[in-house]
Amino acid sequence: MARFAEVIEHSTVCRNLDEPDGPRVVARLIQAAVDEKRLAAERRDEAVRAVLKREWSASTAMPDGIALPHGRTDCVSDILCVIGIHPRGIAFGAPDQGPTRIFVLLLVPITVGCNHIHFLANLSRRLMEQSVRDNLMRAGSRGEVLRAILRDVAEC
Q1: Which of 5, 8, 13 is nearest to 103 (CA)?
Q2: Cα separation of 88 and 37, whole Å?
Q3: Is the full-model pTM beyond 0.90?
Q4: N or C end of the chain: smaller count of CB under 10 Å?
Q5: Over the stretch 90-118, which tens digit does the pLDDT of each residue have?
Q6: Which of 1, 14, 2 is nearest to 142 (CA)?
Q7: Is 5 helix (H, G, I), strand (E, B) or coil?
Q8: Long-range contacts of 119-126 (CB under 8 A, 24+ apart)
Q9: What whole-number distance in Å separates Cα of residue 94 and Cα of residue 101?
Q10: Angle subtended by helix axes 142-150 and 116-127, to nearest 10
Q11: 3-state secondary structure of 117
């Protein structure tokens, strides 16, 4: 499995999301991976189903406007990450009832077991920092989004 920084550096980034609900945000983020040829077009629907199945079992929304939707699938051979920024935010089942603005969607290969849990924990710690969230919301480019997450990260 790729290291944390490597996965983030190769992430697809979608700024200015405007989809009105969670399933459409998930579909848009996965479509962005297809558009960048990081996911085969014929696997798009399968990937969307995998993420939504996981999301419907328990929301991945966290307080402070963060969600980590993810799904296990054989559509990918390593973790595929798509970062989305929704300036207005949407209801996504957050425990604080606030709007979710920062989405980090992961497609995780079935073959990696639970190794992605370490990745999710590292990502969660970063996103819980107010300065990281502020920088993500202000980011004007893909590079700024990635730097906001990777700033001061020891290689994991």
Answers
A1: 13
A2: 28
A3: yes
A4: C
A5: 999 999 999 999 999 999 998 876 667 88
A6: 14
A7: helix
A8: 119/1, 119/4, 119/7, 119/79, 119/156, 120/68, 120/70, 122/4, 122/153, 122/156, 123/4, 123/68, 123/149, 124/62, 124/66, 124/68, 126/153
A9: 11
A10: 100
A11: helix
Q: Which residues contact 55 (CB under 8 A, 6 or more apart)?
A: 22, 26, 69
The pLDDT mean for the chain works out to 92
Helix (H, G, I), strand (E, B) or coil at 106: strand
Q: What is the mean pLDDT of residues 42-70?
A: 95
Q: Which of 70, 86, 116, 118 is catalytic?
A: 70
What's the rounded Cα separation, in Å, for the pair 106 and 79?
Answer: 7
Token readout for 15 is: 């700024």
Task: Give the pLDDT of residue 151.
Answer: 86
